[in-house]
Task: structure prediction
Amino acid sequence: MKKRVIIALLLAVVMLFGFTACKQKESPVDMVTVTDENGEPVTDENGNAVTQPATTNASADTDTGTTAGGSSGGSAGGSGSGSGGSSQETTKPDTTKKDETTTKPKKREVTATVELPFYNNTKAVMHSAYKADGDSKYTYLDDVDVVFDGDSTVELELGKIKGDITVWVEFEGVDIKDNYFVITADKDNIVITPVTSIEQFWDMD
Result:
């Protein structure tokens, strides 16, 4: 009988220690005071502060991290997809024809100065004309009475012309025929010294 009592007591002691150990393993729950949006404690109808179990920051951080991860992943995925799409675009070759740097002749006021050589003070009539590049015919100027005294000059005003110009001079009354002179596009004046037909013949040789 005594043995049974001892065994019962031992069992009771073991059960007591086991129950105590289980109680120690349970984590205590922290209680926090509930506050309003201004941070002031919320009280019940009796004026006592309202409390509730505290939520751990780890749980909130985990949820937030999950949300952030999902949002970040989606954004990164979308961005990566967009940038990938743009990087796959092929660059079209530039087919625009570049302007060639060519200097076009400009119009300028052109004159020709005819120097009359000494020819025994012979009187004559000067005929003259000019033709610019692109013209099919010569433009004739007014006839001029001249004296071959070796000092006189005649100024011919051709007008505002662009490009090269060919000037023709001929004298009626002396043996000076078909004198041609060229004014290049970069000049606006030329000095002409007429030559006789004999001089032209020797120049050809």
Summary: The chain has a mean pLDDT of 75. The helical segments are 2-25, 57-87, 197-204. The CA atoms of residues 4 and 10 lie 10 Å apart.
